[in-house]
Amino acid sequence: PSPHFYAQKQTNSMSAIQFSARAAVAPKISLRKSSKVSVRTGVRAQAVAAPAGVSADAIQDSINSIRFLAIDAINKSNSGHPGLPMGCAPMAYVLYREAMNHNPKDFTWPNRDRFVLSAGHGCMLQYSLMHLTGYPSVTHDDLKNFRQWDSMTPGHPENFVTDGIEVTTGPLGMGFCNAVGLALCEKHLAARFNKPDATLVDHYTYTIMGDGCNMEGMSGEAASLAGHWGLGKLIVFYDDNKISIDGHTDISFTEDVSKRYESYGWHTQHVVDGNTDIDAIRKAIEAAKKDPRPSLIKVSTLIGYGSPNKADTHDVHGAPLGKDETEATRKNLNWKYGEFEIPEAVQKAMDCTAKGAELQAEWKKVESAYAAKYPEDYAEYQSITTGKLPEGWADSLPTFTPEDKGVATRIHSQTALNALGGVIPGFIGGSADLAPSNMTLMKQFGDFQKDTPAERNVRYGVREHGMAAIANGIALYAPGFISYCATFFIFSDYARSAMRIAALSGAGTIYVMTHDSIGVGEDGPTHQPIEHLASFRSMPGMLMMRPADGNETMGAYKIAVEGSANKRPTTLALSRQVVPNLAGTSKEGVAKGAYVVQGEAAGAPVDCVLMATGTELELACKAGETLAAEGKKVRVVSMPCWELFEEQGDAYRESIIPSDCKCRVSIEAASTFGWSKYAVKSIGRDGFGASAPAPTIYKEFGITAEAMVDAAKSLL
Fold first, then answer.
1. Paired strand residues for 545
2. At residue 86, what are phi and psi to the nearest 5 degrees?
3. CB 681 within 8 A of CB 711
4. Distance between CA atoms of residues 231 and 223, nearest Å
């Protein structure tokens, strides 16, 4: 094949497509600038170039090794997406081997460049790169075990499985949003800790996204924020291959993506020939590093590059090439090596372990000097990068008595946020344009903005989906970042996909969800959560907390911070309406998930057990007083977190809610779904809400202390 031929998009006559086995093409790069910008200062922007002593042939063989490792692994598993790795191999080679500063032997190095494959279905691209550059987590045998049981190479990148994967991607656009969160962290830490004589934080975040990522609305939300925040160390490669599962993207996606990103405030470029023009990719990265804006590099590629009969078709997107087409592709690209075979020259050329160790050693010298000269700042930095929380941090959370004035639990939440922000260096977060309602501002800090990136209040705007995914990226940047985000509980519907990925991937984000029930009142059923508590209780890995008063809210935040440090997200459902501080509540009780707040002690004989969460605990206490006055042995149990209760031993659970007690009643201003596990009768709302003052709604729907008494008497 001609080394200078660029394969243009064709929908017919696929056999006519030619492919280059050796790339030696002059740069074809088109720079688009929406406005004149000044060159950023103090930013690492060294030239991107071929490694010394590595020939052009070795580079091309490296690129083809990436392609064929992906092809062979997908064929062996009979499952996967070969098209993206085949098309993206050149840009991915430049990133992992030439542009990125990373140490394969230490994937936790704080100042490493981050890489996110937002188009996670193409994960064999990343696994191939990780193996070739020297990551111990992806061995040769792991490549052969792609998508198999207990494999280190699952069907999408999973940070909790494979060391060196930054975030879990798969839902399109999610990884892009995570990358924005990672880049936010770099900008924030650099502003907080870098000194004129010491640059401790200086790295880039790279991501590869596809057409599908750009179609998903969440990526637009995050891109808008990245431009607004001026995240100049974020460099995004857009794999412009014009193919999706349905076929060519012109059936549904014809916008000018680059123009859209320009309007967001991004620096945009177009590499016209992403299949062979390695120098253009290098120059695009260099240009991106010199611009203070986030950068989108649109790289036009041929999906399935090298395949004579399947390139540029949806057939190569999500199915193995098969034996015959693989052999045809090997012949077409002049690849003379067998399945999973890696040429010795490629192994030497791709190995980044020595380079990475040297880079990290140089940085360690900077770190040591910084620690000696700026010990207080360094202690804060270490808390963030290691996850070691300051001694006594939980002592900042106050305790309440019944004499303290009752307020909504969202107000108690604000007290907790401000207390924790003052003692935990990595505490950072914000709301989706609802800070005055969610009560999420940390009063001692300003806003994280383009020109004030050292501040810790993040203004996400009305972007719940993007917000939650960005917050996850922050949580996964370093173990000491305690990332929170907030909106009305009803709008968790917008954020749910990102919240699920947090639970899956161990992103310890704290989701602050206020206006948690029909108690929202006059705003009506569009704003009143019903099924949401049950939904999040059913989500594996998520702690669903609904505290009843000040003590329980403080206890919930203590658990949430500990959960964040242990890679477990928490959703807090907080009230709009005022609640009293009850006599029997405690922070310690919350840690058990369910505990006795009134009446007969745990383990004692009982006639009746009344259970509640949140704002309805007050009703259960009143019902308990009524029944006790009639001579019944009543136990009132607060259940702020079912998940924690289920993690207690059998003996504890039985002591709280004895199975032989036939009078067990629950009350919660939400769906009764799930309560049958604990209660014989449940009081709640299984239909939608209504627009009226909250007390009226409670009365009309029968969510009252009197209804609880009647239910208990019917079982006694």
1. 572
2. -70, -40
3. yes
4. 10
Q: Supply φ then ψ for residue 407, to 5 degrees.
A: -140, 170
Asked whether the CA dihedral 230, 236, 241, 242 is positive or negative, the reply is negative
Q: Helix/strand/coil (H, E, C) string of 663-698?
A: CEEEECCCCCCCHHHCCCEEECCCCCCCCCCHHHHH
The residues of the chain scoring below 70 in pLDDT are 1-46
Torsion, CA 257, CA 127, CA 160, CA 139, rounded to 10: -170
Q: Residue 229 contacts by C-beta under 8 Å, 6 or more apart in sequence?
A: 184, 187, 448, 449, 450, 453
3-class secondary structure, 269:
strand
Among the listed residues 535, 527, 534, 514, the one whose alpha carbon sits nearest the alpha carbon of residue 689 = 527
> Kind of pairing, strands 247-248 and 267-271?
unpaired
Q: State how far Cα 651 lies from the chain centre.
A: 37
Q: Is 464 a catalytic residue?
A: yes
pLDDT at residue 120 in the model: 98
Compute the chain's Rg from CA coordinates: 28
Query: Which residue, among 119, 68, 74, 67, has the nearest Cα to 244 in the 3D structure?
Result: 119
Q: Are 147 and 80 in contact (CB under 8 A)?
A: yes
pLDDT (0 to 100) of residue 556: 98
Q: Which of 464, 552, 616, 643 is catalytic?
A: 464
CB 614 within 8 A of CB 516: yes
Pick from 567, 492, 568: nearest CA to 536 = 492
d(Cα 569, Cα 558) in Å, to the nearest integer? 13
User: What is the DSSP track for 104-171?
Assistant: TT-TT-TTPPEEEESSGGGHHHHHHHHHHHT-TTS-HHHHHTTT-TT-SS-SS--TTTSTT--S---S
- Phi and psi at 463, nearest 5°, equal -145, 65
Tell me: the pLDDT tens digits for 602-643?
999 999 999 999 999 999 999 999 999 999 999 999 999 999
At 47 the pLDDT is 80
464 burial type by CB count under 10 A (0-12 exposed, 13-18 middle, 19+ buried) = buried
pTM: 0.94
Angle of CA points 438, 703, 692, to nearest 5° = 60
How far from chain centre, in Å, is Cα 296? Answer: 21
Answer for the pair 513, 489: CB distance below 8 angstroms, yes or no.
Answer: yes
* Residue-level pLDDT at 44: 56
Strand 510-514 and strand 407-408: the pairing is: unpaired
- What residues contact residue 277 under an 8 Å CB cut-off, 6+ apart? 23, 25, 26, 27, 28, 29, 90, 271
Separation between Cα atoms, residue 312 and residue 306, nearest integer Å: 10
> What count of Cα atoms within 13 Å lies in the side-chain half-sphere of residue 222?
35
Are 7 and 311 within 8 A, CB to CB? yes
Q: Give the DSSP H/E element, type plus range, for residue 191.
A: helix 174-193
Q: Which of 353, 17, 381 is nearest to 192 (CA)?
A: 381
Give strand pairing partners of 295. 235, 267
Characterize the bridge pairing of strands 295-300 and 29-32: unpaired
Asked if 304 and 275 count as a contact pair (C-beta separation under 8 A), the reply is no
CB burial class (10 A; 0-12, 13-18, 19+) of residue 649? exposed
Place of tokens 């009780």: 589
Residue 376, CB-side half-sphere exposure with 13 Å CA sphere: 0
Alpha carbon distance 58, 22 (integer Å)? 10
Amino acid 93: pLDDT: 98
The C-alpha atoms of residue 264 and residue 42 are separated, in whole angstroms, by 24
pLDDT of residue 565: 87
601: helix, coil or strand? coil
C-alpha 544 chain-centroid distance: 18
Count other Cβ atoms within 10 Å, centred on residue 317.
23
